[in-house]
Design brief:
- There is one protein chain.
- This protein is an alpha/beta fold.
- It folds into 2 domains: about 5-260 and about 475-490, Rossmann fold (3-Layer(aba) Sandwich); about 285-470, Glycogen Phosphorylase B (Rossmann fold, 3-Layer(aba) Sandwich).
- The chain has 18 helices and 19 strands.
- A 9-stranded mixed beta sheet has the order 3-4-5-2-1-8-9-12-13, sandwiched between helices. The chain has a 6-stranded parallel beta sheet with strand order 16-15-14-17-18-19, with helices on both faces.
- A hairpin with a 6-residue loop joins strand 4 and strand 5 (about 90-95).
- The structure holds adenosine-5'-diphosphate.
- The site of adenosine-5'-diphosphate has 19 residues, from helix 1, strand 14, strand 15 and helix 13.
Length: about 500
């Protein structure tokens, strides 16, 4: 039997991307499909996607005018479709003039703040997915939802009156890509959710410190829950990483799993990467030095010296990513013989901190504020080391991409980093990176020093590079684990 999977996400690469969720949503359905499952992907039809509809081959799916009851109003949606690039997997887009005919995935591009109707958008989208699947006459085995945005769906599956009979045997899986974002909204949102107030009582599914928490609802109602690494699935059951949901997660630990993300080597491989000017491989590394020159001279306009190790960093500029300890460590880091290139955007205070540092160290530090996928690829290719001083990291993709590019991770041992990088100092024969445990600027600095001193021994460094490049985090392995988990859920073996 081939399992029928409905995969729902508010970001899917290359249609709309904010962070790692898009990478996963763009790649995992393909990998599952390649193992024989039947997969359908659903996402909102944002203005940003509408603007690129031609190049993305998006067309109307001839389903429109289906009403969604949101309590105070009824809104209709229209369905569009395309394929995930280079596949025959259908991706469906929910169009709504009211909720999605505008630019921005989560944030209003003008104010850089979350849309004031965020909760309504998510409720509308979730309900519309249920109706769209019914209208398409698909009979799903698994409804796979991602993060708080779509976490209401498992509850709708169990509680929505008059749900189409095609959903009768469907089971649900909620994947948590980042527990820090939970979708917490005022209690009044219950009227829009539309199932009455009976689920709101102290410590009940709807109640979260007086508010409503979409992720909590998903955790409670999903048939199974997983995080994007094994380590993170354990970490989030502690007060330190649990973001106030550790109690709920512990109670539900019997259905909580960890499956590490894969890396999409169709997009992230220096041998074939179409964003970089000089491709290279473990057999011929000459292109990497050329990319270092491109990165340093062309992209960041810094003086190029082939022998200086270059540290790269690409991330959302959020507290999670370690910018507080990084900014404390920068004066010391800048005394080392290195250059540092950073690409990111996010919280204005971190953007300012990094821009100030670039002004103070004009020959050593380059900062680009913004979202730039091409530059991300050039940094992966041109840097010698990749910095990830994250406070927590549910999976982290860049450390995996970096290894494939021979760009050695210098990172904090947390979540998916702990599950994918081996410390060179502790395990010199098999090590693939440099890790630290304590979240302090001193440890971060010490670890950069360790990496820089290893870099001085070029023979040793090359060995580390080749080991890292030989690691295989392809999606196939992770997709097999997802398929196993789907089967477990379908057969009630949780
Ligand atoms: P998160 O999902 O927490 O942002 P991940 O490491 O899982 O972190 O995934 C981040 C993804 O987003 C990677 O593909 C990374 O290259 C990309 N990315 C993050 N910031 C930027 C940026 N400013 N420009 C281009 N790509 C970015």
């Amino acid at each position: 039997m081939s399992e029928k999977i409905i995969f729902v996400s508010t970001e899917v690469n290359p249609f709309a991307k904010v962070g790692g969720l898009a990478d996963v949503a763009g790649a995992l359905p393909k990998a599952i499909y390649n193992l024989g499952a039947e997969v359908y992907v659903f996402m909102p039809y944002y203005g940003d996607i509408q603007a690129k509809s031609k190049e993305l081959n998006i067309e109307p799916a001839n389903i429109s005018g289906i009403p969604i009851d949101l309590g105070a109003e009824i809104e209709t949606f229209e369905l569009y479709r395309s394929n995930l690039p280079d596949t025959s997997i259908s991706i469906y887009f929910i169009r709504s003039e009211k909720y999605f005919d505008r630019m921005g995935v989560y944030l209003d591009p003008k104010t850089k703040k979350a849309f004031s109707d965020t909760a309504e958008r998510l409720i509308f989208f979730s309900r519309a997915v249920i109706e769209a699947v019914s209208a398409l006459k698909i009979k799903p085995d698994i409804l796979h939802v991602n993060d708080h945005h779509t976490a209401l769906l498992p509850m709708y599956l169990k509680k929505l009156p008059n749900i189409h009979y095609n959903w009768r045997n469907t089971k649900s899986l909620l994947t948590i890509h980042n527990l820090a974002y939970q979708g917490v909204f005022p209690r009044s949102i219950i009227d829009t959710i539309g199932l009455g107030h009976s689920l709101f009582y102290p410590e009940g599914p709807f109640e979260f410190y007086g508010d409503v928490n979409f992720l909590k609802i998903g955790i409670i109602f999903a048939d199974a829950v997983n995080t994007v690494s094994e380590k993170y699935s354990q970490e989030i059951q502690t007060a330190e990483f649990g973001s106030k949901l550790d109690g709920v997660l512990k109670v539900n630990s019997g259905k909580l799993f960890g499956i590490i993300n894969g890396a999409d080597y169709n997009e992230w491989d220096p041998r074939t990467d179409s964003f970089i000017q000089h491709n290279y491989s473990a057999e011929d590394l000459s292109g990497k030095v050329k990319m270092k020159e491109v990165l340093i001279e062309n992209e960041f306009k810094l003086p190029f010296n082939q022998n200086l190790p270059v540290v790269g960093m690409i991330s959302r500029m959020a507290a999670q990513k370690g910018y507080d300890i990084l900014s404390q460590a920068i004066p010391d880091i800048m005394k080392l013989d290195i250059q540092f290139t950073i690409l990111g955007s996010g919280q204005p205070k971190y953007e300012r901190m990094m821009l100030d540092a670039a002004r103070m160290y004009p020959d050593k530090m380059g900062v680009f504020i913004g979202f730039n996928n091409k530059l991300a690829h050039i940094i992966e290719a041109g840097a010698d080391m990749f910095l990830m001083p994250s406070r927590f990291e549910p999976c982290g993709l860049n450390q995996m991409y970096s290894m494939r590019y021979g760009t050695i991770p210098v990172a904090r041992r947390t979540g998916g980093i702990a599950d994918s990088v081996i410390d060179v100092t502790q395990k010199p024969i098999v090590g693939t990176g440099f890790l630290f445990n304590d979240y302090t600027s001193d440890k971060l600095y010490d670890t950069i020093v360790r990496a820089v001193s290893a870099y001085q021994d070029s023979k040793k460094w090359k060995k580390i590079m080749l080991r890292a490049m030989g690691e295989d985090f392809s999606w196939d392995v992770s997709a097999r684990k997802y398929l196993e988990l789907y089967k477990k859920i379908i057969n009630n073996r949780i």
